[in-house]
From TrEMBL:
CDD domains for the chain: HNHc (cd00085)
Organism of derivation: Mycobacterium tuberculosis
InterPro entries in the cross-refs: DUF222, HNH_nuc
Compositional bias per record (Pro residues), positions renumbered to this chain: 224-236
Organism phylogeny: Bacteria, Bacillati, Actinomycetota, Actinomycetes, Mycobacteriales
Disordered, as annotated region: 198-236
Any Pfam family hit: DUF222
Protein name: 13E12 repeat-containing protein
Domain of life: Bacteria
Domain HNH nuclease: 63-115
Amino acid sequence: MVIHLIAEAATINGTGSAPASQMNADGLITAELVAELAKTATLVPLVHPGDAPPEPGYAPSKALADFVRCRDLTCRWPGCDEPATNCDLDHTIPYAAGGPTHASNLKCYCRTHHLVKTFWGWRDQQLPDGTLILTSPSGHTYVSTPGSALLFPSLCHFSGGIPAPEADPPYDHCDQRTAMMPKRRRTRAQDRAYRIATERRQNHAARQRAQVLTQTAAATDTHGPPPDPNDDPPPF
């Protein structure tokens, strides 16, 4: 069994009393149990990026991705509790617009809210401590703090500033034909029925092939080997 826990070093060493949080699950783990589990567990240090420069490229390194997921714990959309391990890592300032691949410009969005933010006119601003300020198309604002702010406040320390987003972005970022909301070719029910039917066809074809091979082998055994032309029938 594999479980992923976030815990302070003192808790792991048995000298602290702060509980641990289990990734991809609700609830806390007591310090006593964490110290016991740590004796045989694989320990991976979580490094705060601090003032580290932005990483090259669009996709963050594993270390940076792990930090952002542990800092956020869940989807950062207000009211959403989808675990961070199931979320996308989104650039607050789009990478194509010069947004850096940096802890101060990355946060977790579940796929649904990632699409809502990208295609439905929402805007977000991210502060160096991970706080998000979201603005709806109607102008209402919402503030989202990282999930670790109460449990592991050290993860929300200043992680370096980035340039502020444009003050007055265009009204519609999605007016180009290439920026379109993805659409399903089939409903979820239709997709499930299609996959079931495909699997049944494949299983039926496999059974037919196995049946043909079995019948061929049986026919060979029934006829037996050809007679020896030098073997004279009795009497000898």
